[in-house]
């Protein structure tokens, strides 16, 4: 983000406009480089979609393979394919998945809501729970409650997320029969809109908790150490000397200063939110983007793979920009220059 | 009411139904009409039109939507499908099918002989590799009246009548596809067929919802109101779904084989391995015959002796299958059991390898061979490890190489492998599903399920060719017996097992597996109780 940090004498508005223009040029360049890189990477993997389909059909012949390869445009030389692809991107056309018989954009758009619902809920849950538990542990550093919280968060952090998911299913779905084990909504059951919301919420509990608990553990640990760090700084001593109440010190002074590392890590994590979690989506049969990506890689569905990669890259770049902005809001001392 | 209560209510209603309350009972057949069957589709198919895509899940699901002229009993004898009767001329060149009257597609249009001729000679010829192999032998296809179809062959082809199941010859509506680019036809999303169930909704990544086709031509069918195929990508989750009752039926490899002993003992479930006779999945250790030392017959025989295939069946496949004795499955027609036997004997294996001059080195290894592990689930991984152990005992060192589906298909079909395992379907007749793996005319680089091992024996080629065109079953049996004896002696590949895939189902379900096509059949008569 150095582009934004350029200080130009003159009116502030002009400076910002120039900075944004520069950022946009850079953005387009980065996207095109990423797209080319993706293309090369994707085609470097052995096998092609025609072979995969043949492998799953139990029979094949030359005509079938030639047909499929022509459909995918694989009969043309690589540089030509790359040129066609880049040209399409410039016109904002993500292409067509012959494998799924749908446009790439519609496939992504169809899966994105389910993924965002899952990942954003898990993200929020983990942030709120992680920051509160971390703060709690930090201010009680050394006491037994701190030790207990540290052990729990270490335990969650170390646990493979698919295993946690399966264990939760075994307990809450199979044994107790409280919550549905998979899917995002009951199928084939007539429901009022309200019942539908409740139904989706019930389906969300286990995947959100599984996914959220690992992230939560990370934030809790970060938060705890940051709080301990801040607690020994002079301005806290000053606050205490002023006679401020403990709650006020924690919320007004410690929390705001300690939360910066969490924002940094959360900003990095936010990029993966869009990608979804392949593991969680697989275990809970959640129809999200992560599984779509994974399947498209296995099936060598080139248009779909490239489309997803590109969309994700764009979102990650935008999120990085947003993270920098949030930095400024949380801590006004951080100027755009410092954030770069 | 939440989902769970609803399910319980459903179960209760089902129980009451069995208890004799006449509500919704079709008296004529004594079946409880209605109900929803929940099952699994894995992996999710790309499209549902079986004429255009023949991946396993497409065929399983598509069998409910697209019907074909015939189906087959467990001994592979033809049964009526869309065709109520059929005749073969004495010279075995002319096949005449009579259709049932009043068959309609899901859009209400009548299904006639024109649709059959179009499907067989146009859309399938262009888009279905396996159908193309059979139907390219048709000289003339005629529709003299709306209910009669006549096929005249160029020359006799004995298994012709075995190629009219719903996975080989699904009938599609001519009025929707004629003159269009079939694969890009927007109607593909609607999947209009003539089967007892029609597509209501397909939520990608979640489920495919089928509902009854009210205009179905068979009286009292379908019995069920709806079928929901759920997409559950994780195998452990699939087992849980079955255990929990969320789904009432699993098929093929929905459930990992090591889960089968446990699940089949659950009080609400029952298990059958019937319904795969038509496919007769044959698993073997593929050996690249082009590369030394595997180009030596003695080496391949040694491999056969070195593998304790009974232990493989019991330990890895949990008894779900049979030890294979040769290229033809005992479930397929013209099986010959009187062939050379390869009992488990590391001593014989070592003797053969010694005779070849392949002496063990100081580390006990005679030769190191890379092995591609097929990426089709846990059972294949375990099989690979079992084979490595077995062959290590006689000094053959297998190096297992993991790879994904695309990579495996690429390397395997381009002969860039030494050994791998593969499972090939026999499709009811050696001329349809066996000869393709061994005849030298089918050595085709880049094509999966062709003669990838590179085996070539002019005598075997001749016998396969003559058996395919012979006009009597006795003559065919004679040729097939002869070639099986030769091949078992020469071991082009090391046949391992005839796999019996498990169908696990709710005990209340009736008529699920009634033919050799098993779970691919229409499910028109499937019912709860």
Write up this protein.
The complex is a heterodimer of chains A (340) and B (529). In chain A, 76% of the residues lie in helices and 1% in strands. By secondary structure, chain A is an all-alpha fold. A two-stranded antiparallel sheet of chain A has the order 1-2. In chain A, helix 3 (49-55) packs across helix 4 (62-71), helix 6 packs parallel to helix 15 and helix 9 crosses helix 11. The longest helix of chain A has 39 residues, at 193-231. Chain B is built from 15 helices and 23 strands. Chain B starts with a helix and ends with a strand. The interface between A and B is large, with 65 and 62 residues.
**Oligomeric description of these chains:** heterodimer
Query: Largest sheet of chain A, order of strands side by side?
Result: 1-2
> Would you report the number of β strands of chain B?
23
Fraction of residues in H or I helices of chain B: 25-40%
What is the approximate shape of chain A?
A: globular
- Note the main sheet of chain B: 6 strands, mixed
Radius of gyration of chain B: 24 Å
Q: What do the pLDDT scores of chain B average to?
A: 91
Form type of chain B = globular
Number of strands of chain A: 2
Strand share of the residues of chain B?
15-25%
- Mean pLDDT of chain A comes to 83
The computed structural class of chain B is alpha+beta
Order of helices and strands of chain A: HHHHHEEHHHHHHHHHHH
Low-confidence stretches of chain A: 1-9
Could you tell me the radius of gyration of chain A in angstroms? 25 Å
Strand content of chain A: under 5%
Name the chain pair whose interface involves the most residues: A-B, 65 and 62 residues
**Major β-sheet strand ordering of chain B:** 16-20-15-19-17-18
Keyword list:
heterodimer; A: 340 residues; mainly alpha; two-stranded antiparallel sheet; 16 helices; 76% helix; 1% strand; B: 529 residues; alpha+beta; six-stranded mixed sheet; four-stranded mixed sheet; 15 helices; globular; disordered N terminus
């Amino acid at each position: 983000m150095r582009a934004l940090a350029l200080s130009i004498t003159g009116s502030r508005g002009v400076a910002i406009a120039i900075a944004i223009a520069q950022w946009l040029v850079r953005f387009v360049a980065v996207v095109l480089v990423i797209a080319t890189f993706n293309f090369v990477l994707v085609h470097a993997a052995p096998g092609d979609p025609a072979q995969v389909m043949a492998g799953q059909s139990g029979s094949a012949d030359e005509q079938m393979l030639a047909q499929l390869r022509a459909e995918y445009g694989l009969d043309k030389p690589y540089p030509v394919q790359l040129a066609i692809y880049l040209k399409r991107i410039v016109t904002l056309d993500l292409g067509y998945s012959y494998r799924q018989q749908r446009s790439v954009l519609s496939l992504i758009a169809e899966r994105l809501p389910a993924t965002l619902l899952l990942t954003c809920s898990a993200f929020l849950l983990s942030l709120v729970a992680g920051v509160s538990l971390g703060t709690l542990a930090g201010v009680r550093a050394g006491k037994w409650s701190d030790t207990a919280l540290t052990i729990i968060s270490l335990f969650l952090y170390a646990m493979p997320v698919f295993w946690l998911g399966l264990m939760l299913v075994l307990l809450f779905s199979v044994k107790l029969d409280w919550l549905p084990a998979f899917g995002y909504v009951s199928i084939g059951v007539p429901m009022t809109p309200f019942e539908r919301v409740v139904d989706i919420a019930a389906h969300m509990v286990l995947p959100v908790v599984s996914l959220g608990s690992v992230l939560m553990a990370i934030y809790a640990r970060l938060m705890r150490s940051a709080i301990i760090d801040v607690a020994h700084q002079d301005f806290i001593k000053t606050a205490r000397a002023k006679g401020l109440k403990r709650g006020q010190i924690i919320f007004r002074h410690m929390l705001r200063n300690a939360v910066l590392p969490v924002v940094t890590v959360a900003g990095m994590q936010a990029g993966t939110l869009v990608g979804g979690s392949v593991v969680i989506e697989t275990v809970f049969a959640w129809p999200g983007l992560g599984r779509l990506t994974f399947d498209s890689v296995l099936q060598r569905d080139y248009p779909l793979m490239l489309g997803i990669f590109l969309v994700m890259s764009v979102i990650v770049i935008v999120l990085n920009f947003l993270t920098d902005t949030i930095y400024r809001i949380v801590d006004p001392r951080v100027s755009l220059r410092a954030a770069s | 009411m939440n989902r769970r209560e609803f399910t319980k209510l459903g179960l209760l209603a089902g129980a009451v139904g069995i208890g004799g309350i006449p509500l919704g009972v079709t008296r004529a057949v004594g079946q409880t009409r209605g109900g929803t069957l929940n099952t699994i589709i894995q992996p999710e198919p790309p499209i549902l039109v079986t004429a255009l895509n023949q991946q396993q899940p497409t065929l399983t699901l598509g069998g409910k939507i697209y019907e074909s002229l015939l189906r087959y009993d467990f001994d592979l004898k033809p049964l009526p499908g869309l065709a109520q009767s059929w005749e073969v001329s004495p010279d075995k060149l002319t096949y005449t099918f009579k259709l049932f009257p009043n068959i309609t597609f899901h859009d209400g249009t009548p299904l006639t002989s024109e649709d059959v001729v179009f499907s067989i000679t146009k859309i399938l010829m262009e888009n279905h590799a396996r159908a193309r192999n059979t139907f390219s032998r048709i000289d003339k296809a005629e529709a003299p009246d709306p209910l009669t179809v006549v096929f005249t062959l160029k020359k006799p082809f004995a298994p012709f009548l075995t190629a009219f199941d719903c996975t080989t010859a699904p009938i599609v509506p001519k009025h929707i596809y004629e003159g269009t680019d079939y694969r890009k036809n927007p109607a593909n999303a609607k999947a209009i067929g003539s089967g007892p169930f029609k597509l209501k909704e397909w939520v990608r990544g979640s489920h495919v919802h089928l509902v009854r086709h009210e205009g179905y031509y068979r009286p009292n069918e379908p019995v069920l109101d709806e079928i929901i195929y759920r997409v559950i990508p994780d195998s452990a989750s699939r087992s849980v779904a079955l255990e929990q009752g969320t789904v009432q039926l699993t098929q093929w490899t929905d459930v990992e084989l090591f889960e089968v002993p446990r699940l089949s003992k659950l009080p609400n479930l029952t298990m059958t391995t019937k319904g795969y006779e038509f496919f007769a999945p044959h698993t073997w250790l593929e050996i690249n015959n082009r590369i030394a030392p595997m180009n030596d017959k003695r080496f391949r025989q040694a491999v056969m002796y070195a593998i304790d295939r009974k232990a493989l069946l019991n330990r890895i496949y949990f008894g779900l299958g049979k030890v294979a004795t040769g290229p033809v499955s005992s479930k397929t027609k013209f099986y010959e059991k009187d062939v050379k036997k390869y009992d488990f004997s590391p001593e014989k294996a070592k003797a053969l390898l010694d005779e070849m001059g392949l002496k063990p080195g100081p580390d006990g290894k005679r030769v190191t061979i890379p092995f591609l592990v097929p990426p089709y689930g846990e059972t294949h991984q375990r099989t690979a490890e079992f084979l490595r152990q077995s062959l290590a005992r006689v000094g053959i060192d297998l190096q297992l190489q993991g790879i994904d589906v695309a990579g495996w298909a690429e390397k395997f079909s381009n002969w860039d492998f030494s050994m791998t395992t593969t499972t090939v379907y026999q499709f009811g007749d050696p001329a349809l599903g066996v000869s393709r793996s061994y005849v030298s005319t089918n050595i085709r680089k880049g094509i999966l399920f062709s003669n990838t091992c590179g085996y070539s024996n002019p005598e075997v080629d001749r016998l396969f060719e003559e058996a395919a065109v012979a006009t009597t079953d006795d003559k065919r049996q004679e040729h097939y017996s002869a070639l099986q004896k030769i091949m078992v002696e020469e071991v082009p590949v090391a046949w391992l097992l005839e796999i019996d895939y498990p169908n696990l189902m709710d005990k209340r379900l009736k008529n699920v597996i009634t033919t050799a096509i098993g779970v691919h059949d229409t499910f028109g008569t499937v019912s709860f109780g």
